[in-house]
Design brief:
6 helices; globular; mainly alpha
């Protein structure tokens, strides 16, 4: 088997793994779905264009994937959910972590929230 075939198989395996994690995210509230489906579409684009096309054609997730690809856009509801989850994590860190470690989740939350809010609306 040549090197190109191995690369396609690895990209396909990564796409399947990302899709699986995204699907679990449908049922677990703090695990994002669309982010992993964006990764799956990227991987399938390098390995299995038919699977990529199926993801892009999906009425629920396809528009979000395309908005990210075309404009780096995040839906307003996704921004709100992300910032709220990050805020909760920052507060939990401030309350429960010892010493100066307590500030790390809050700092990450501020930086990540700023980035999320800087993206255009989908």
């Amino acid at each position: 088997m040549n090197e190109g075939a191995w690369r396609r198989r690895l990209w396909c395996a990564a796409g399947v793994a990302a899709f699986a994690v995204g699907t679990v995210g449908i049922f677990l509230p703090l695990l994002p779905t669309v982010v992993f489906y964006i990764m799956a579409a990227f991987c399938f684009g390098k390995s299995n264009p038919a699977w990529e096309a199926r993801l892009l054609a999906d009425p629920r997730f396809g528009p979000h994937i395309l908005a990210w690809r075309e404009r780096g856009a995040i839906a307003r509801a996704g921004k709100i959910a992300g910032v709220l989850a990050l805020t909760g994590s920052g507060i939990i860190g401030l309350v429960f972590l010892p010493g100066s470690w307590r500030y790390l989740p809050a700092a990450i939350a501020v930086l990540a929230s700023g980035w999320i809010l800087s993206r255009p609306d989908a």
